[in-house]
Amino acid sequence: MIVVMNPHVPQPTIDRVMAEIQRMGGTPHLSRGEFRTVIGAVGEEAKIDQAHLLSLDGVEKVFEIMKPYKLASREFHEDDSVVEIGGGSVPVVKVGGKHAVSMAGPCAVENREMLRTIAGHVRNAGATILRGGVYKPRTSPYSFQGHGEPALKWMRECGDELGMPICVEVMDTRQVETMEQYVDCFQIGARNMQNFDLLREVGKTRRAVLLKRGLAATVKDWLLSAEYVLSQGNRNVILCERGIKTFEDSARYSLDLTSIPVVRQWSHLPIIVDPSHCCGKREWVPAMAAAGMAAGAHGTIIEVHYCPSEAMCDGPQALLPETFVGLMEQLRKIAALVGKEFV
Amino acid sequence: MIVVMNPHVPQPTIDRVMAEIQRMGGTPHLSRGEFRTVIGAVGEEAKIDQAHLLSLDGVEKVFEIMKPYKLASREFHEDDSVVEIGGGSVPVVKVGGKHAVSMAGPCAVENREMLRTIAGHVRNAGATILRGGVYKPRTSPYSFQGHGEPALKWMRECGDELGMPICVEVMDTRQVETMEQYVDCFQIGARNMQNFDLLREVGKTRRAVLLKRGLAATVKDWLLSAEYVLSQGNRNVILCERGIKTFEDSARYSLDLTSIPVVRQWSHLPIIVDPSHCCGKREWVPAMAAAGMAAGAHGTIIEVHYCPSEAMCDGPQALLPETFVGLMEQLRKIAALVGKEFV
Amino acid sequence: MIVVMNPHVPQPTIDRVMAEIQRMGGTPHLSRGEFRTVIGAVGEEAKIDQAHLLSLDGVEKVFEIMKPYKLASREFHEDDSVVEIGGGSVPVVKVGGKHAVSMAGPCAVENREMLRTIAGHVRNAGATILRGGVYKPRTSPYSFQGHGEPALKWMRECGDELGMPICVEVMDTRQVETMEQYVDCFQIGARNMQNFDLLREVGKTRRAVLLKRGLAATVKDWLLSAEYVLSQGNRNVILCERGIKTFEDSARYSLDLTSIPVVRQWSHLPIIVDPSHCCGKREWVPAMAAAGMAAGAHGTIIEVHYCPSEAMCDGPQALLPETFVGLMEQLRKIAALVGKEFV
Amino acid sequence: MIVVMNPHVPQPTIDRVMAEIQRMGGTPHLSRGEFRTVIGAVGEEAKIDQAHLLSLDGVEKVFEIMKPYKLASREFHEDDSVVEIGGGSVPVVKVGGKHAVSMAGPCAVENREMLRTIAGHVRNAGATILRGGVYKPRTSPYSFQGHGEPALKWMRECGDELGMPICVEVMDTRQVETMEQYVDCFQIGARNMQNFDLLREVGKTRRAVLLKRGLAATVKDWLLSAEYVLSQGNRNVILCERGIKTFEDSARYSLDLTSIPVVRQWSHLPIIVDPSHCCGKREWVPAMAAAGMAAGAHGTIIEVHYCPSEAMCDGPQALLPETFVGLMEQLRKIAALVGKEFV
Questions:
Q1: How far apart (Å, rounded) are the C-alpha atoms in residues C302 and C314?
Q2: Minimum Cα–Cα distance from A216: chain D residue
Q3: Residue from the list B247, B251, B295 with its beta carbon closest to the beta carbon of D288
Q4: Where in chain C are all domains bearing CATH 3.30.70.1140?
Q5: Domain B2-63 in CATH: superfamily?
Q6: Residue B31's beta-bridge partner residues?
Q7: What is the pTM of this model?
Q8: C247, A251: Cβ pair inside 8 Å?
């Protein structure tokens, strides 16, 4: 860490900062310029508290030299991680490295019949993981909130029937124990990316975790949230770019595809792209799915509904099954151009 | 709601939209312009699903006419709400209308002694509610996470001793039952503003709820989150502006003080301002506290620490007790200018 | 336009709004709901002043039904525009529809020799338009500001020699007359996207105009800026997505690729992508160029430098010539997948 | 400047960076940690090109130690600057330090009569500078663009009559020469904050310059733009916070009042606040003006119109004269609380 002191600070103030660095286990290195004094804190950065240094008298700013996460960092794990989803009653699907994944399904599981129809469609088009919401995070308390455990059972049955691992959003720590019995992959939604208790709970399971990026999260914040899960012993984390909140109002969120090469440089974790929620309009979804794959994502998660106008939630962005078939064909070709393969 | 159709849509497409409006309980009103057809959906807006309308063929956009929240809205509750915090072992403190509140205390409760010292300082300076974190939402899993239940007891003891109701952040639905026995006011942190299960749980209690604004939340999103609490029967909601995430990087977050007159126009709920977390530097805190009061806030929540350089977390923004004394004097004068009074 | 009135407004207030709509040439349509009165203003929206309606007593909000731009809108020009750049001493290059373009060159023209070397490299790799800055918009007054007119001559010579039309940024209305003699395409930089006098001046010429998106501009703002140029009679406008300002700080700006399908739906104008300036790091540029093409862009504008560490400005994001060769190969394949062709 | 190298870089790569620092006039200081090598570049930072260092092989990041502006910085000018506006035919008005200023007037000068009426109102309420637009930056080419030079003459006459210096927006370098004959203070609008040629031109005059903050500008960007003016020899720069572009959509822009204490810490230049344009609704303007003064601003610039519903532009945010009278009374009291005085 690098500590920049205010201009003209007296020696005792400098000494105090150096002493604090030592107390936290670092080695201070003093460097005096003509205008500013700078103190380097050499040693394991995780031990040195940046906020504490900032609170000391005479400190103007503090820069991190190293990344604040470790298990998520490519520095300590050079090769791409390959996460396995499924096993047991369904085949294992790999995500990461050369392996691209297509997760698809309805936004919310409305009933058993509808789920089966959509699942059949997406399976035929080439999706290998079935997604579907049973607890729905809704901005308004008056909107449909999901069917809960019954829908969870329908998902499991449907996944088993079609040989597809299932991915379902978890919203509350109290749901983890029950859901662990049903799902192959927990989804952490954007609004819960910094629900730290929830991250810890899914970190204690051995299911894969699809961690969506928060609406106000930098890539660094996001990797720190992944670190919460990883630090509990669960190494099966997949990141999912789904858009950030910006001033642009044509789409609901701005898909920040630059995060894909950034994450791939900073971390070994697989990253996929969700083009459905950010667009909010189905016409724009295929272009953004293609763009995400071209940017180097390890797959996509896409909402599909056979008749979006009857969907109980988030209809406007759901693709029609026939559009999804064509899109999967194109995604396979793009994946091939960037050295990946959908299984 | 107003539905704008794409140019040149055929009649059956228009008919379908009108039928759907009727099916949801609204009355459709057709209006044809030279270039566009517009359909008004008259009736209770909460029943008419905007997303569903958007998913229909031929629909270009849908505008809301009414606010999507009801219990939080000034339309249905003209006068300012006055929320009461405390009672029982401590006096009742009122927030809202003419009543301004000063909540203050350490960021995290580090130990009993430190808590008492700080609580004494802020009480003497004029704070009436004691705040202190016992479960800490930390971006990094390697940072101090709070002392949990023991710290909760210290807070209760200290509040009782000084006659100050206490306000403590709740982070997980599983903490609600225990915390309800200790606290006078639940704080919902910015990162949990859309943790809908947590909102519902505190909504089932009768404790006051201090709802901080999410980092990516519009005023509308925020009032919808308040609606979650209110709709469970708990009407004691206080809003807290604490900054949003923007591109500006001098301060940690951008305090959006315009939200104060906006909230006061749209809602009857009290709103206070937290100048500590957004600034990230104690030098800027007094100016922002004063600005918040001048903008019409019903009070402030401020971090105070007698020796910020020993604070275990978030030291850089904590005010020294002597600065807090001077600030409170100024805030009282500003409050008087805008028709409010700190008790 | 749709005018929503405040609750409980008296009749004379409503009458006044209706009279104003008529005065501006519209036909008012009154619709009373249970809670709100809504007035539709039918007629040519461009004539009806939204701000004026908003300033009237009793008006809560005003929604636009139609797009506020006309010449830029696909509603009035269904087919993709194809813009021609060059002619005279250099061949014509087409952009738009099926025609993808590759613009490339150094950020700043440092000297004649360096320009020729880089131009040769990019020409061989398949670029058809030479770009290079001669007046440089620099955040700091102490940074290199460009060589001005001499560099303009080197660009012209170099373009003529290699048969490449040239694209150069214009920063000031006083430069337009001189530059018109040299350049085939004016570039309007992000910081000048709402320099309305400059837009009007290039609109009076018949050179192509590459209009970069402003850092804080919505797609609507951007198309309105295009409208400024178009309304002067110059129909040769090409849009260029180059990133917007968001809270994310890993890259300099966030490339908002969703703008590509949005622009293509709302407008007939060609749109290309600039992945160099937003990334700020050359490692991320190829991924974002590929993503832009996959999203449907009509080409790319990329900075190339043979030895970025000697570049006088913006070195970190310039691609090495050999990387650019490989990238162009990949972009050609992606273009083919989305129905476009680099000439 | 501090250069952080990638992990495991070989010695020659490090040597190259050190040599480049020396070539640019700095002294390199090498520091090797367990995981990273860090090179300090001691010397005048303005001479050392950050972008150039970033473009070198093996460089991961580069931190600035010093502020990139000099003339605008408080480091080199400890006391508050006091800018004088006017003189000659009108009295001098001081802004900065203890001197608060109230600039007010119509958004656009529509005609001589209206100007006189409004000017009289604001003068009586206590405004000392008359503001009014004669060239209007309008998002749409179809909106009213201002009356130009005739309106400039009306402004001058009206200012002389009432003894008020005048402040008028300049939009184009070609307007500077003419306007210099009429105005006491040039206003640079938000959209032109990085129109560097325009900054240089007004920097060559000796008129005061009111520099509005750009919609996407950090405080650092803004002070660098001030540096452009200052570096031409014109030291009469006043900053104006007027809101930044964020995701919040209740108001048009988010007034970033934290910029006030930040600017006052980093710079000696006076800073005032414009609450009119960001709000977009007159009801919210007084609260934000009061908040700006409480945050430490050196004054306000506010739009006033006697009958906003007939204003030709930007009506919704113009205050009525009677509201402005009451607001000025309150602002005087708040100014007194923060050690300032409206003359």
A1: 12
A2: D247
A3: B295
A4: 2-63
A5: Phospho-2-dehydro-3-deoxyheptonate aldolase; domain 1 (3.30.70.1140)
A6: B38
A7: 0.95
A8: no
